[in-house]
Amino acid sequence: MKSHKTALITGASGGIGYELAKLFAHDHYNLVLVARSAPQLTQFADELQRQFGVTAKSVPLDLTAGSAPQFLFDQLQRENISIDVLVNNAGYGILGEFSKISLEESLGQIQLNIAALTHMTRLFLPPMRERGAGRIMNVASTAGFQPGPLMAVYYASKAYVISFSEALANELSGSGVALTCLCPGPTDTGFQGRAGTENTVLFKVLRPMDAKTVARNGYRGLMAGKTLVISGLRNRLLMESLRISPRKLVTAISRKILGRAG
């Protein structure tokens, strides 16, 4: 049986976004899948349609372009596609000292991780409020709870996502719209390849979680209306320890785990 509800997922061609799409499809949500990779995204949409009998629309789009969120919103409006669940999952980071990373890369992270997420939320939230129903998931990171030398912009961008999400969840109380912020720790996705972190202590020694488990934890939290979901017991305990640890020590440890393993 097809659902009349539709979920929009950014960064849907791999990793956590890919696994979240399968969970929504399993529960009979129609899907709008957004990512840069056109062939991979189209193939994935076709697979979901065949396997789960849902409608899956692929939209190849680079959200680092400032006009992309409005373009997407306008296209869906023209096609009379109403979004019931928005998942802002797309994001990336780059390993290296801030002064040595290109300005383009740093601003690209801010555009995707902060500006596009904020823009998407601002566009798709008002129709949800008008209907008195809807869900939004913003994917942050446990990185957002601490400074991150060698990934300064990425860690700071995720701190924004956490703060923005918690504040907005409070504003939406009683509106019928729920907002959840998912904070994964190190996760086995394509992220580390693009970020250049695959040989760091963070990924070589601390053993990342698998994307399927993280997505399942996030999905359950979203459906339960939780504001903050930290995936994994180890990550939850670590985040609690950060609250009582000296900030200078936390920053030093962050830099150590972003160093090369061995």
Mean pLDDT, to the nearest integer, reads 90
| Strand neighbour order, sheet with most strands | 3-2-1-4-5-6-9
The outline comes out as globular
Strand pairing plus helix content: what structural class? Answer: alpha/beta
Distance between the termini: 53 Å
Order of SSEs: EHEHEHEHEHEEHHEHEHH
User: Describe the biggest sheet?
Assistant: 7 strands, parallel
**Percent in strands:** 15-25%
What Rg do the Cα atoms give?
Answer: 18 Å
Unreliable spans = none
Total of helices: 10
How many strands in all? 9
Helix content: 40-55%
Structure description:
This protein is an alpha/beta fold and 262 residues long. The chain has ten helices and nine strands. It has helices at residues 15-26, 38-52, 68-78, 103-131, 152-171, 191-195, 201-204, 211-223, 233-244, 247-257, and strands spanning 6-10, 30-35, 56-60, 85-88, 134-139, 177-183, 187-188, 209-210, 228-230. The chain has a seven-stranded parallel β-sheet, sandwiched between helices. Helix 5 (152-171) links the parallel strand 5 (134-139) and strand 6. The longest helix is centred in the middle third of the chain and has 29 residues, at 103-131. The mean pLDDT is 90.
